[in-house]
Amino acid sequence: MTGTTAWRIAVVGAGPVGLALALHASRLLPHARITLFDARPADRDMGADPRTLALSLGSLQFLQRLGCWPAAAAEPIREVHVSQAPPTLSGLLGEAAVRIGAQSLAVPQLGAVLSYGALVAPLQQAWLGAAAAAPERLATRFGAPVAALKALPGGVEVDAGIAEPFDLAVVAEGGVFADQARKALAHDYAQTAWVGTVTLQGAPRGVAFERFTRHGPAALLPLPPLPGAGDDAAADRRAALVWCVARDDDPVRELTDAQRAAVLATVFPPEAGRIVAVSPLKDFALGLNAERTLVQGRQVRIGNAAQTLHPVAGQGLNLGLRDAFALVDALRWAQDLDAALKRVEWARAPDRWGTIAVTDFLARSFTWQLPGAAGARGLGLAALQALPPLRDWLARRMMFGLR
């Protein structure tokens, strides 16, 4: 059974979350009239965008359901290795590291890594195909930035050059922390994330590494091999790098690429392989910027429009896709739109606030100047590895959210 109500729905933002929501709604709400807005021009080549995304298994399954999972362009994550750089307090419990494997959880993979363009391009193609097949109810407004949203009795007005009334506006246009207006819950972590790619020798395929250091967390996410690259153990591997450091004590900014490679060799454990090259890196300010509520009247915010998180747990995009899935699922069975939006707010609260709280705690812990704080993190990792039921529960939470 699918929704039978002919609501007019505006989706603001054609990134991964907005496109996934619009496409999912177009299929499960066959009587709804959906308009997708985005400021970018329609002819922009999104497939060339190299930004890296890490998706959980739950997000991957959602995209497979939409028929938009580009498996050939993604590298599966089959194991995650999280460790604390010395010093630690973990001697009694063993190494300060947690290893989570897909095989032990009886799943094919924990998630996958791919470029932003590789994900957005098939989603956009599928949406444009759906809109061409049903122009009477699906519309696309690329090159139409939304200037304002105005509450109306029983609806919302969307101003994108022409003011139009809708029953519901879903805002999925988030951006990065530095460019956002501050929301109800905001905190600047005074940290910088340096992102780029590295080349490794002797690296295991399909393993993601996260390392907690005194400067902040650093991560290596496995990337698909370049065309023509070998697949043997001696082949060079590529990985996406996320390297978080304190803004006021930044050990990265003044280094050359070669110097950065030398420093990174001391950051990650030997199991990650030997870093032999580092691409030019881009820097982003890190902070928490979240709305207290997803729903405000007939406006719903999802993804980065609702909460921008620190990348330490890699949950920002995954949380947004879970928002999108839950919203469409609630509307699918609803007759009363306002009641359905209230149910979404309550249903998403445990997953949303739990993820925000864990991410915020981890991010703030790198700013604490307490003696032994780093060692205590290591002790926690060692304890988690020593308690498989708790470790596996946490792993499933990262894959599917709290449900």
Describe the protein.
It is a single chain. The strands form four sheets. Strands 5, 6, 13, 14, 15, 16, 17, 18 and 21 form a nine-stranded mixed sheet that branches. Strands 8-2-1-12-20-19 form a six-stranded mixed sheet. The protein has a three-stranded antiparallel sheet with strand order 3-7-4. The chain has helices spanning 16-28, 57-66, 116-133, 257-267, 316-332, 337-365, 373-385, 388-400, and strands at residues 8-12, 33-38, 52-56, 75-77, 79-84, 97-101, 111-115, 138-142, 148-152, 155-159, 163-166, 168-171, 185-201, 207-212, 217-222, 237-246, 274-278, 282-290, 295-296, 299-301, 307-308. The mean pLDDT is 90. A hairpin with a 4-residue loop joins strand 14 and strand 15. It has one domain: FAD/NAD(P)-binding domain (3-Layer(bba) Sandwich), CATH 3.50.50. The protein contains eight helices and 21 strands. 31% of the residues lie in helices and 29% in strands. It is an alpha+beta fold.
